[in-house]
Amino acid sequence: MYKTERKNIEDNKVRRLVSKYLLRKGCTRIQKSVFLAETSVEIFSDIKNDLSEVQAAYDNNDSIIILPITTDYLRMMKIIGQNIDIDIITHSKNTLFF
Fold it and tell me: Engineering a disulfide at 27: which of 35, 47, 67, 94 sits with its beta carbon 3.0 to 4.6 angstroms away?
C-alpha cells in the first residue's frame, strides 16, 4: 500500500498557490499573509469554500481567518508604519484627465 504524503499549509509552495488564488480573486496583498478585497457576497463565499477545502486537505497547524469588513471600518483603521493606500482596495480613488 502506498502512503500519500500530505504537505503542510506552512509549505512555501502551498502558500504561494493560496496567494496567487487570492490575487486572481481580486484581493490586494497588504502584508505577507494579509489580503484585503472589496468583493461580492458570491466571491466571498467562493473564497471561504475554496480555502476551507485547502485547510482540510493539508496537515497543518495554521488557521485561515476570513473577516468581512465594511469600507467604513476599513477607513477607520489606524496604520502604524508603512502606509497602505486603502483607496486602491476600495476602488474609490478618482482620476481626472485634462
Answer: 35
Rounded to an integer, what distance in angstroms lies between the CA atom of residue 37 and that of residue 27? 4
The C-alpha cell of 46 is what?
467562493
* Grid cell in block for residue 44: 466571498
How many other CB atoms are there within 10 angstroms of residue 36's CB atom?
20
Which of 2-6, 8-12, 52-56, 79-83 is most confident?
52-56
- Sequence-distant (≥ 6) Cβ neighbours of residue 85 within 8 angstroms: 93
Domain 12-90 has CATH 1.10.3470: no
pTM listed for this prediction: 0.68
C-alpha gyration radius of the chain:
17
Q: d(Cα 70, Cα 74) in Å, to the nearest integer?
A: 6
Tell me the H-state helices in 1-95. Answer: 12-24, 41-57, 71-76, 86-90
Domain locations in the chain as residue ranges: 12-90
